[in-house]
Amino acid sequence: MPVHTRKIELPPYIANTPQRVTIEPVRFVLEPYPCLELGDDDRGRPVRVRIHQTLADDLQGADELGEVSVYQPTDGSAPTIIPFRQTGTPDDRLLSLLRISGGTNNGSRPQGGAAVYTATTSTMVDCHDRKRKYPHRTQLVSCPHCGTMLSRALAMPEHPDTGQIREWGAFPFAGVRVVAQGLSYPARGANDAYRVILAVLDIDVRFLVHRRGAKTKGEPETVGICWTGKEVILGNDDSFNPPPQMIDLTKGTII
């Protein structure tokens, strides 16, 4: 499968330490066997992706993956990372290890906490809280989702039958294949847990990670990730522009 491997990480907040998204080689461990560690599953059991012993031996003591392939047995059993096998056609996909923290105190659940992965496409849909009645002692004056002012003409504040919210496209989508995923639990506890995803990205694929937990000043609200076939480009919204080498110069004119 893919040639390239990269880890894309924004770790949980550490006091007095600037937190930034980093891109670096994917490293593996040798114990209990050569593998990538992806945290735990929803039952607290470790999630590991096995690295074939031949590949571990070929790396001669190094702990960084280089050009690899992913072998998926036809019986649906767990995939294994193996030495790169040439298929006869160029392959510029990326095997990426995604570790993006959603922030602190995010009320995490096994589904992945407050780091929410989506496509870069979106549509406007009716607010899910339309016609909702709130407790009469609520301090809310507007909907926290769509911003519509609550009606207080009745005994209980009510959300009018108006207001829309942005709904992002689902992840994964065509061009993204999730190989395995787990849940990482920082030392502070389960409320700061976040998903760790091993995925294969097609060339020029792009997606967003919305960070909905509490964050320190300067940390990005949204992490945009684009794989160009040669490098990973980071953004902070859905306004990705293709790098110059990706522009088709036959579809346009010189001005």
Summarize the structure.
The protein has 255 residues and is mainly beta. Helix content is 2%, strand content 33%.
Task: Walk me through the structure.
It is a single chain. With 255 residues, this protein is an all-beta fold. The protein has two domains: 4-121 and 169-242, no CATH class; 125-167, no CATH class. Helices cover 2% and strands 33% of the residues. It is built from one helix and 15 strands; from the N terminus they run ββββαβββββββββββ. The strands form four sheets. Strands 2-1-7-12-11 form a five-stranded mixed β-sheet, with no helix packed on it. The chain is globular. The chain starts with a strand and ends in a 20-residue tail after the last strand. The model has no long low-confidence stretch (mean pLDDT 83).
**How many β strands by DSSP?**
15
Domain count: the total is 2
SSE run: EEEEHEEEEEEEEEEE
Structural class: mainly beta
The coarse overall form would be globular
Can you give keywords for this protein?
single chain, 255 residues, mainly beta, 2 domains, 5-stranded mixed sheet, 4-stranded mixed sheet, 33% strand, globular
Question: Could you give the topology of this structure?
Answer:
Elements: E1 4-10, E2 22-24, E3 35-40, E4 46-51, H1 53-58, E5 68-71, E6 80-83, E7 94-100, E8 115-118, E9 122-126, E10 164-168, E11 176-184, E12 194-201, E13 206-211, E14 222-227, E15 232-235
